[in-house]
Amino acid sequence: MRAVTTVGDARLIRAAAFTFLAAVAILALFFGRAVLIPVAVAVLFAFILNPVVTWLRRLLPLPIAVAAAMLTALASIGVLAVLAMTQLAEVAGSVTAYQANLHQKIQDVRHLSEDAGPIGRFVAMTATLAKDLSPEGGATAPALRVQTSDSSLAAIATVLAPLLQPLLSIGIVVILALFMLLDRDHLADKLVRMFGADVHATSEAVGDAAVRIGRVLSLQLLTNLGFALLVGASLFGLGMPNALLWGLMAGALRFVPYVGAILGALLPTLIALAVMPGWLQPFLVLAVIVVLDIVIGQLVEPLLFGESTGVTPLALILSAIFWGMLWGPIGLLLSTPLTICLLVLGTHVSQLQFLRVLLGDEPALQPYQQIYRRLIRNAVTDAATVTLKEIEASGRERGLDDALGRMVVLAESDRALGRLTTEQTAAIVEGTSEVLEFLAANADNGSDASADQPEPNGSASQTTFRCIGGRGEIDDAAAELIAFALRQRGLAAQDARRADATAQTGHTVALPLLCYASYPSEAVLRYNLRKLRDGSGRARHAIIDYEVAAPRALPPGLGGAISSQMLVGDIAAICRIATQHAVDTTSTMATLSDRT
Fold first, then answer.
1. Rounded CA separation 234/46 (Å)
2. Which residues contact 260 (CB under 8 A, 6 or more apart)?
3. What is the pLDDT of residue 99?
4. Tally of CB atoms within 10 A around 40
């Protein structure tokens, strides 16, 4: 009892320490954002340019390759910025020309609310509520007169002050990225030395992070740039002014996970409502952007990205919310690469494996564990779906072992520990039977999953196996599972509950298989053999064991004649040994018949 209390206290202390460290890290990220944001942007900028620098190093020395890549990137960004600013200036100068179009659309909406219709009543109710909530008296504040200085230097300072901080941040990002690219090999060595004594494991983690982030950012940059050009060309074809600006804006917003795509479609649509006459063209603008986003997101990006991110959509959304709250719009843009970094840490650092479980798109449970949970909840259809998927992925024999075979072993282990109620045990047994019926029906409906199974030996085909649960209800499920596997190999097999061990067959030779989901005691083995009575010399004990290849020593007392009657291994191995046993038994009986 004292040891259990000590272990519980240690876990509580670790949880409290982890919570404290996480809170400190979040506070540091928030209050240190003025320094951390430029550093993070510089690191990602270096990741994007790293493949270009690597390619240029084949032709040029490192300093010249870095300078060429940096100048090309800055020139491209500068051209795009100039185009965007020029387009924005044109939009600002054309605002007054759009007033008549906006006035007409407002009149159209107002016509919909005439004649005391539902819209009119809703507007009237809203106006009444606004009037009731407004301060009484309606007095307006007196106008303030602001005296401005006539100094030209003050005017210049007023204009330049808002630009100083962004320009300073851009300069810091460029300088940091430049030195990171020039000293990238030494920086990688420092990271390996700082984060782990295991050089190989840490090098794998750093390389994995670099490859994933560089690939994701490069492909995002290419796909979003292509999306921007397609949107700009489509809007230009629809006759929308400043189409290039709206295309670039839609492409830039796609860097924000999920929310950015929605904003990238809504903003040009709202602008089109103000700019374009009528109602058809604005909705065509929305339709074009949505269709292009679906094509890029559902067809192009899956082909290019493949399994490069490894992050679930829910994790990306939560990450965008978290980093957006900490760092604002820059945090939204950085959320995806930062999440990938956390996923890589969880993959390669054992103490942070929970990050891989929370963020990764890999299943948190093995197939047999998923089936076990679903059968306990009586979700038989879901369990059958998982089983069929595993069989299709791994093949009939291995899939059956990895899905249902390991499931019954896990269920028997929990039953022996007293973790399963009577209802849960019954749900597992009945659910296993229903899943096997589903698999049999799926095989009968044209599935060729068993087409590669070996043809049974002629002697074995004359034999019927009677698979009987050897000890408890879970063993009944194991017997039904082994009988199903034997039938999949083309053999005749019947399954029976442990209470019905005398099932009759119409075949000449009937071989009993006493099936167990774990090692039974010697007393159980001997009792089952005595219960069979007739034909007990041909009976065998089939024990599902996935650790037998270790090799594993048999439990004490299981030796001699009993051990020679045991078929131990996975379901596929049990079926192979049982087939050979049928051949030997049939041959022996044929020899005895010839002698008589």
1. 33
2. 253, 254, 332
3. 61
4. 23
- Are 288 and 231 in contact by the 8 Å Cβ rule? The answer is yes
Model pTM score: 0.60
Listed in sequence order, the residues at least 6 apart from 492 whose beta carbon sits closer than 8 Å to its beta carbon are: 461, 463, 464, 465, 486, 505, 507
Chain-centroid distance, C-alpha 595:
66
Hey, how many other C-beta atoms are within 10 angstroms of the C-beta on 282?
22
Three-state secondary structure of 300-318? HHHHHHCCCCCECHHHHHH
Q: Residue 546: which residues within 8 A CB-CB, separation 6 or more?
A: 401, 405, 406, 409, 570
State in Å, rounded, how far the first CA of the chain is from the last one: 69
According to DSSP, the residues that pair with 496 across neighbouring strands are 468
Nearest CA-CA partner of 369 in 348, 391, 387: 387
Taking the CA of residue 247 as centre, how many other CA atoms within 13 Å lie in the half-sphere pointing to its CB? 24
* Helical packing angle, 33-56 and 313-327, nearest 10°: 120
Contact call for residues 436 and 483 (beta carbons, < 8 A): no
The per-residue pLDDT for 449 is 43
Which DSSP symbol is given to 417? Answer: T
Pair 70, 174: CB distance under 8 Å: yes
What one-letter code names the amino acid at 175? I
Q: Give the Cβ contact number of residue 550 at 10 Å.
A: 8
- Cβ–Cβ contacts within 10 Å for residue 311, how many? 20
Residue 63 has a pLDDT of 86
Q: What's the confidence (pLDDT) of residue 494?
A: 80
Where are the chain's structural domains?
35-94+169-182, 367-452, 459-596
CA distances 543 to 366, 514, 574, Å, are 22, 8, 8
Please identify, in words, the CATH class of the domain defined by 459-596.
alpha beta
Local structure of residue 296 (DSSP, 8 states): I
pLDDT at residue 516 in the model: 87
Sheet holding 492-496, edge to edge: 492-496, 463-469, 509-516, 540-544, 566-569
| CA-closest candidate to residue 215, choices 358, 356, 68, 337 | 337
Which pLDDT belongs to residue 222? Answer: 83
Give me 505's structure tokens.
């067959």
Q: How far apart are CA 430 and CA 423, in angstroms?
A: 10
- pLDDT by residue (tens digit) across 404-435? 888 998 998 888 888 888 888 889 889 888 88
| Helix (H/G/I), strand (E/B), else coil: 504 | coil
At residue 180, what is the residue type? M
Cα–Cα distance between 248 and 225 in angstroms, integer? 8
Phi, psi of 566 (to 5 degrees): -100, 130
Residue type, 578: A
pLDDT of res. 340: 78
DSSP state of 360: B
The CA dihedral of 32, 34, 38, 41, to the nearest 10 degrees, is 70
**Amino acid type, 305:** F
Q: Can you list the alpha helix ranges (DSSP code H) found in 521-570?
A: 522-532, 561-564
Residue 464 burial (CB < 10 Å; 0-12/13-18/19+)?
A: buried
pLDDT at 107: 63
Helices and strands (H and E) in the chain: how many: 24, 5
List of the chain residues with pLDDT < 50: 1, 3-4, 137-141, 144, 146, 149-150, 447-452, 503-507, 534-535, 549-561
